[in-house]
Amino acid sequence: MSIPPSRALESIRGSAIRDLLAVTERPGVLSLAGGLPATDLIPTGRIAVAAQRAIADASALQYTASTGVARCREAIAHLQCAAPEQILITHGSQQALSLLAQALVDPGSTVVVDDPVYVGALQSFQAVCARIVALPITGAGTNVAELETRLRSGLRPRIVHTVSNFHNPSGVTASAHTRIRLAELADQYGFLAIEDDPYGALRFTGDPIDPIPGDRVIRLGSASKILAPALRVGWMQAPPSIVGMVERLRQSADLCGSAFSQLMTADLLSDTGWLADHVDRLCAQYRVRATALTDALDRHLGGRIDWRPPEGGMFCWARLHDVDTSNLLPAALYQGVAFVPGRAFAVSDDLGEYLRLSFATLPPAELDEGVRRLATALDHL
Amino acid sequence: MSIPPSRALESIRGSAIRDLLAVTERPGVLSLAGGLPATDLIPTGRIAVAAQRAIADASALQYTASTGVARCREAIAHLQCAAPEQILITHGSQQALSLLAQALVDPGSTVVVDDPVYVGALQSFQAVCARIVALPITGAGTNVAELETRLRSGLRPRIVHTVSNFHNPSGVTASAHTRIRLAELADQYGFLAIEDDPYGALRFTGDPIDPIPGDRVIRLGSASKILAPALRVGWMQAPPSIVGMVERLRQSADLCGSAFSQLMTADLLSDTGWLADHVDRLCAQYRVRATALTDALDRHLGGRIDWRPPEGGMFCWARLHDVDTSNLLPAALYQGVAFVPGRAFAVSDDLGEYLRLSFATLPPAELDEGVRRLATALDHL
């Protein structure tokens, strides 16, 4: 029996990262590959309390509105300084990307992404057969100068997508100028900017930068990185007209989210004193881990590797000169360490010398050991 | 600011049922409209125990595989007499419909549905711009005779969808002959049959009928109706090649489901003694409620209404001769009762005299009062 896939499915690039998970879950492999937040930093006890509180009311276990439970929309709106009508709760912020792509993008419509790209975003736009235009990211975020040149030459994207803080995978944070310019171009040329921001709260050095301004911006956020991935609570903040469009589509996608999970999340996000302390602890720990990783890169790979010093988030983007990191990966796995080769995130550029290293998942000693193994793999290449 | 919707979004019919929810949630309205299982029959205490057990291990709060947590796939496979590799866990079975439509249907591809149709399925196929062919359902389920005639005349669907047990909204259960014939036609003409079965366990009279046989069948199931909707656990059972295709698409849709929720579900589904008792209690209660509803139809609307006696599930499909039930609805809401007019489920037929009444949501006394109000509304029409 041979079942042909749809053209939409055929146009999606497989995620090397997800495929790697199978390997990295093998015992003995230290994974610098995944985007998993630290399991030992998930506030399990507080979440268990939230679960018991939510379940006390059986209506927490019923269906709920496609936009989300009112109490959770309000808690998120408060956090985002937005109105509840601007918030739609999704099954992780990946679902927001997927629903926005389906609601706003026709086959052949242009979508602009950064290069390297967050692969989940690329896949969502590929799944609706968008025409992808990738602009090489700069140290100040989305390449707004290049974007403007292309817009002047007639490029008319429906959407420009970026991860504004601690970009996955490049680690770059968009400057205030980039954000303001992107908003101006969105107004001038009539596209929507998607500001994908799962990592913004995880800043451990430097000052936060205001989000992209204006009313042609859709902001995506997530509870996965600050509370727990299994809550599967993400959200979009958008003009109510777009919330209405996504709400309508969501009925066919999965009817609604989990009232139980959203009530737990509302409890956690509304406990502002606890939340602030918890996020402070997370940032402090991630700073320790980022330093452990970069110290290890110095110690074991000094002179052979360059990297962008992480200011937050979960990833360190690095470059091994004259090494094809896709070829390095099998050797690294053999030594018991995993990472993601740059090419997994490349759209138009090659990025074959780059690699993404996560410092979030492992404790400091294992980060050091992982880098030591990586150096051994490189020696054996 | 005017943002154009995608053609896909424009082609989705709004769900009158979901739109009605806003009205039916007004205090004082008795809802015979929604597809909500009885909140008072949700096993809250046992679910709370499952939540505490699952959360004891912090890995329950991490990301998980796109196909689902192994333990939950195994529990579902056991329930379905299938292999775990045939199971993919989705965010409710609605997500399975949506992902299957995206993975298997190209714009313009033909999909066959029953008329009346489960609106969520229709929307999922509309969202990928399928060509919809609706065949009037018979008392024995999908109209396989008409389907065969159309296939002989050259119809080549990718998918034939049906709700096999206690069809939503018509209440029909497909006969053994219908199921076998559908499987034969699937083999002969190369389409896939989707056997959507959220209600099969809720049989309170008559004998269960074996599922559609063969290897061109995708079976969808759900924990929403037997455990709780907020678990958001549904599943598909399909050949591993199709599981693989949907897994790949799911990465762009929402990455993965909730490990927490799936571990809770695995706990509940594996507790087979408790589960059997719980489902028996549900069936007994739903039988009482179905009888309360049809007794009330006799009492308050006798001679003016026909209905199909429910054998299970949650719905009673009824017909008021020479009444346009879409016109009746505002009068009914004014009297404080809600139902769904037949036209909400119609594809090619008119079904203007039909209505869907849910007996699952309300206790017996309120079902009687709801029907009394419906009769009053009819008198005032």
UniProtKB/TrEMBL annotation, chains A, B:
Keyword Kinase recorded: no
Keywords on record: Aminotransferase, Pyridoxal phosphate, Transferase
UniProt cofactor(s): pyridoxal 5'-phosphate
EC primary class: transferase
Enzyme Commission number(s): 2.6.1.39
Gene3D superfamilies, sorted: Aspartate Aminotransferase, domain 1, Type I PLP-dependent aspartate aminotransferase-like (Major domain)
Residue span(s) of domain Aminotransferase class I/classII large: 32-374
Protein name: 2-aminoadipate transaminase LysN
Gene source species: Gordonia polyisoprenivorans (strain DSM 44266 / VH2)
Lineage, top ranks: Bacteria, Bacillati, Actinomycetota, Actinomycetes, Mycobacteriales
Record gene name: lysN
